[in-house]
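[stage:ingest] chain + small molecule (nicotinamide-adenine-dinucleotide)
[stage:ingest] validated
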Amino acid sequence: MSTIGVGIVGCGFVGRGAHVPAFSSIEGAQLVAVADADPKRLGKVQKKYPLKTAYQDYAELVKDPDIQAVVVSLPTPLHAKASLAAIQAGKHVLCEMPLAANLEDADRLLAAAEKAGVILMPSLNFRFTPNYVRAKAMIDQGVVGRPSSAIYREFISARDLADQWPAGSWMWKLADSGGPLYTLCVWSIDLLRWLFQTEIVEVHSAVKYSPLEKLGGTLGYDAAATVRLANGVVGSLQYSGNVTRVSSTSRLEVVGDSNCLLDATWNDKLTVFGDDPAKTEWNVGEPGPRMWGHQQMDEYFVRCIQQGQTPSITPQDGRRAMEVALQIVQGTK
Ligand SMILES: NC(=O)c1ccc[n+]([C@@H]2O[C@H](COP(=O)([O-])OP(=O)(O)OC[C@H]3O[C@@H](n4cnc5c(N)ncnc54)[C@H](O)[C@@H]3O)[C@@H](O)[C@H]2O)c1
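[stage:predict] done
[stage:export] tokens:
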């Protein structure tokens, strides 16, 4: 099978932290080049990985003839412009989520990819996170019976958020990027749609932002959303970017009419609580960029290109997660 040349645009938290190591070790893929406006970040990647070259201007990377696939891991407000440039250069695109800061830009992207006949795959890595993959298989096998409720809680420490995206970062600019809640809730919205293979048909929410002067001016957020899925499942989504490190958590619980509760915590732990006091636990953790499913997703993207296959993760999935995220952020009036 032909080797797919890959270029990664944006060498920040997720570009350098997940996609660069992932694509460097995928059989059948060659990480040809990276692009970043910051030469120090380029230098760090070049020192560690055997690239053909590195570009400060992504417009040059997308024209590189050795590259067939481009990963866009720039700040969200830049996704549409960079992905459009790659699509227009005839490249397949794996675009980080949210696909854009607004639906109009996302629609432009979707239309351009369709017209060019290239893959535009949203980076919805929760579909490959080891304990969510196992949870979905167990739900499909009927472990919880007919699902009735799903509760997802994602509490991230305000300090960790400020370390990743210091004050002044694109992340905190509500008007430009949509802000931290919009950015960070898209994966769990898609998780519910994917787990139950159905659509979210109703959204209610309450949201509060709290400027965090002690962290230099980042933005704390708290939100609770209730959603209804087309199969009747009631979803409860809780987000906070205001907690301390010790109270950080990421937890999915699914309840159904078998009286069992399926609990997926972080990226590795899975527990089934039944009627008797004994519970069954699995640890399905994986190391490095496999931990949250990035490597498995990147591998899938490469295989789809090699085999001329349309990915099961569609641009519309990315758009729908954005749409629901925007409804959550708006809050119920
Ligand atoms: N899938 C995931 O698990 C996951 C996790 C975190 C973030 N994300 C998403 O990934 C995207 C990037 O987030 P991040 O946390 O890596 O951001 P970041 O701020 O850490 O990194 C962005 C990088 O883009 C570079 N950059 C900025 N403007 C540029 C330009 N004009 N040209 C070239 N390079 C430029 C910056 O120098 C920086 O290295 C966001 O859309 C975010 O929502 C996804």
